[in-house]
Amino acid sequence: MKNEYFPYPAVIEDIKTETTDTKTFRVWFTDKVLADSFDYQQGQFMELSVPGAGEAPISISSSPSRKGFLEFTIRAAGKVTKSIHMLKKGDYIYLRGPYGNSFPFEDIKGKNLYFVVGGIGLAPLRSLINLVMDNRNNFRHIKVLYGARTPDDLCFKDELEQWKKIPDTEVWLTVDKPSAGWGGRVGVVTELWKETHINPENAVSIVCGPPIMIKFAADKLQESGFKDKDIFMTLERYMKCGIGKCGHCNIDDKFICKDGPVFTYEQKKGFRHKEHIF
Amino acid sequence: MRGKGGKDMKASKVKIIGKKKIKDLLREASQEWNVYVPQKWSDGDVWMDQLPKDKQMLDEALEDVVLEDVDTVISPKDIFFPQLESIFKFKDDKIWETPEFSPKLIFGVQPCDLKGILFSDDFYRRNFEDRYYVSRIQNRLIVARGCLRPPRPTCFCSSAKTGPFAEDGFDLQLVDFGDSYFVEVGTREGEEFITMHKKFFSEPDGNYDMTIKEIKTKACDSLELKVDFQNALSLMAQDSFIPEENYRRIGERCIYCGGCLYVCPTCTCFNVFDNVKDKEGERVRNWDACVFEGYTRETSGHNPRKDKWLRTARRYEHKLKFDYKVTGLSGCIACGRCLSSCPVGIGISKFIQEITEKRKIM
Amino acid sequence: MPRVLTTCIYCGCGCGLYLISDGKRLTGAYPSRNHPVSRGALCVKGWNSYEFSNDLNRLTAPLIKKDGKFIPASWDETLGLVVEKFKHYKNTFGPDSLAFLSSAKTTNEENFLMMKLARAVFKTNNIDHCARLCHASTVVGLSLAFGGGAMTNSINEFKDAEVILVTGSDTTAQHPLIGSRIINTVKDKGAKLIVIDPREIQLAKYATIYAQPKCGTDVAWINGLIYVIIAEDLHDKKFIEERTEGFLELKRTVRDYTPELVEEITTIPKEKIIEIARLYAKARKSMIVYSMGITQHTTGVDNVLSLANLAMVTGHIGFASTGVNPLRGQNNVQGSCDVGALPDVYSGYQSLVDGDIRKKFEQGWRVEGLPPKAGLTVTEIISAAGEGRIKGLYIMGENPIISDPDSNHVRKCLSEVEFLVVQDIFLSDTAEYADVVLPSASFAEKDGTFTNTERRVERIRKVIDPPGQAKADWQILSEVARRMGYKGMDYKHPSEIMDEIASLTPIYGGITYDRLGPYGLQWPCPTKDHPGTSVLHKEKFTKGKGTFMPRPYIPPAESTDEEYNFVLTTGRVYWHWHTRTMTNRTSTLEREAPEPYVEINCEDAEDLQIRDDQLIKVSSRRGAITLKVRVGHKVAKGTLFIPFHYREAAANILTILAVDPIAKIPEYKVCAVKVEKI
Q1: Could you tell me which residues come within 8 angstroms of residue A148 by beta carbon, excluding any fewer than 6 positions away?
Q2: Please, what are the domains in chain C?
Q3: N or C, where is chain C less crowded by C-beta within 10 Å?
Q4: pLDDT of residue B42
Q5: Is the pLDDT of residue B290 over 70?
């Protein structure tokens, strides 16, 4: 019997600083059998452990199309994530998973894609975006609308630049609070609607970010004519086990860890206390 | 693997055992099994405790065994899902797990609690097995014991059809018949147990089927607390039928002890934390409860169920709406423990009365 | 055995619970179904009481501080050092250069030994404990009025009360199994509830009348109630005549307290004062419930005396479900007072000024020359330590750096005392200042008794062994006495200590371990065949006649001014216990209330443009702390509330070291502060 609660050691191969409080950790399993058989999907998460500090669910920010490593982009917020930030290259971290459902991929081929992102929400979406970029010919026009609190809070700045250069791909950035030297747009992400045309035709949108941002963005997309089933979003809950047992991430008969974290707007509207989801 | 508490075999055979022989049966069985049986304490409390293996201590413990009018604060769920248990231990860069597999004979389980055990078994086995729970139940035999009288004034099993006798799910079931028990055989494992200890059992005389039927009917009639359970389930199935006000009123009265959930036979929630000193320690889990504000508070401070009424709604909707939706079974097995352990007199039976009888009683 | 019936470690309710163990550590806590207090229920702290003692950061070896660092040492070396130092100070500077802080968290037996150690072995009365900080006013006040400082009724009597007046007690949070009984009595049996509290607590929602007085104006509204009662002829003349003395003085004092004046002082509308007076006086069975909102004032004794006046003037005392009920905070604060861990009395509140009583103890303890003069109180001991008058200080299970007023002052004093011994289960903030730290056993690791708020002496039972070299407090104290050459403190088991307590203490006279059984006995229990007492002062008051001791209203020590324009009142939250050394090691409790906060009224928040959850700075003349804001209606405009549990933003950095002149209890409930945005 497999013990789902038992984590496996992985070595931190690289650490990249994204923002003042966010780092991307590139890790890989030490066990060769596990490393060879390991597979995951875009949008899934894993439980990361620092024995002594505890365990936290963290989305995988790397794309399943890029093999031989895993990346986690982590903001130092709680006890566990702060402990992870203390780790150095070569240290061990303990992983189990992957868990949760994934962002759609096969079903959205041939469509225009709108990625609406807030802050650290780009971490899980980056997994899908890079997967899409690695299969660019299967998709039509792509818009990434990305808002952060300050210019410093924008993650993956190099990749944002790279994506821009890919044909038929637009990256729109905005910040709530500009800092000196910021020449770009100012305002919340939904403000971008004023600047760029949002066309729901043959399109799906995928929204990821803090709960309040998702709420506004999803409402806005709906206003723009997106069907409820074409708006994908991630829901966030306090989580312990990651496998639908501890109960914390329960909404109605669903577990965010098992049945989510990706839901459509349609599913969200079906929840019992739908006005209290975010 | 034996004694899964198989559900597919109906009680087909009946034996009889003298009440006086129960102690000797348990003594013999405890050589092979870890035997859990209700035992009475000096303060009158009854707990489902493991019989000691030491001979003298065993003899003493057997004197305290009680099988009638048993009101344990906690259902036997803590045998498989203890209040606190180890997930793994660690030291420096090593980690190791410590699951528990001992053979368990659970003797004298109330039918409502049996439903609770089976409900939790299913939950822990379903879609990602819970290693610790499932290893604990791997080798288990359940001897149920029907209730002639409700052990708690808050019992309402007859309304939910979860008692006072079990129809299935047991390996063996005791039916109280004066100086002896009829023993209904529910599974092959139950039958094997009787064969192993055959000197304690004999064949019943005459028309025992009728006698058993009469006992069960009379037991059912002895329950005074009756609620419209099925109606409650169908009302709960309709979205937004229950006014927010009900949940708000209950949420205000609640003092957030967590007791109703800790004692609930089908509550399975847990918290996980590390106990550590320097680089050595243990990851443990302990019982948690969805009525607590921190249960859903995220690291950012954002909390989708900050309001008391939403947490209250969660509790009742989980048991009476969503469990039913997912499994076809109510998550409430009508044991009445939530009410009997509530400091402020809140209970699921009262909630059912409120919604089906449309009146305020809490 | 894996399951042991014992008594909860947290509040004064004294719930009976079963602790479960796997032989090495605790794995669970369940309520006793049949225990008269718990009756199958517990509060969240009780349900989770199994967790903290498992923490791997327990103290497991004696520690001696060398060059500013704690080094593990043997018991022999450590206690040798303690005894050497204490002997030296005693011989050089006299016995009163030593002081002992006992603990309401430890057992009756251990408190008794601590006071015996101080008095019989070291010959000083400098012994006190945190009761000074919670109910010293009750002990003094109710003793003056009735002859005994304890709850006059029992917990299960709430169900038959007709009117319950709750003041200065957030009962559902601090005594949950009593608060819940109040809710049940009101909701299910139609009793009327009066809540008078500067905070709109959970019980206020069930109140027939809720009044929100200004902090520190209690004597005024109580006198106001008595004014109305006498004016409307609602007083119980027969009771006053037969059972009390001093009514005329009372009448004279309260005649100035017209509802109009009371409204002016307290902000309680005069109509409410009249309404409350009528409701309370007219009922047949009225119970007063109070706690630290009444006692923790420079007028703490006055407040208690005034409540006693109110009960006596209406004859609402001395009957079942009718009386005055101070809810004691700690699990054993009643007991630690009962057994004499106080500077002016021996066990059973027997005065040490009385030569005959001293003689009795000298004979009982086989010593000579017990000191006749009252010793110093907690706050005086701390100050004296800072001034060098106390050279050796022995603290058992207390954490004054967080719990005592004006933390900066306490810190300074403790860092200056010559030799500090701290005996505890964790390295507390106070222990950091110690020269020697002694590791002790938790409530699950020893035998003993606690006395709950309804005077019920209950057993606690050993479930598991203490970690490492840790020892039960009674064993450590006995060992110190033995090393001092005293032969009268060798015990094999705490039951022998209880036998000694019974032999010297009339109210505990009939108590033995054999008799306590699963539910204990309620004192007074003077003889071996006495069944215990559920209601005090039944036919007559303990002191004979009850005495009216009217008091005028005196404002708090510190009033607001232009700069310090907010009144700060402090208290506790449901999830934590006192200085949080146990509850912050309990996952559920710590998760529920992980952060310090300050409650502020919506209007004030709007005026100051402060949002919920925003960090602000609160400062008094003594210090400043930074913490998050909770905006709401719980406190009135102009008032702030801060729970004192958190070392991260310790409320007691702000509080004032101003004490009641008689009880010496600090005024935790009122000081002037200001609020600044950061």
Answers
A1: A118, A119, A154, A155, A173, A174, A175, A176
A2: 3-54 (2.20.25.90), 63-132+331-522 (3.40.50.740), 136-326 (3.40.228.10), 566-677 (2.40.40.20)
A3: C
A4: 83
A5: yes
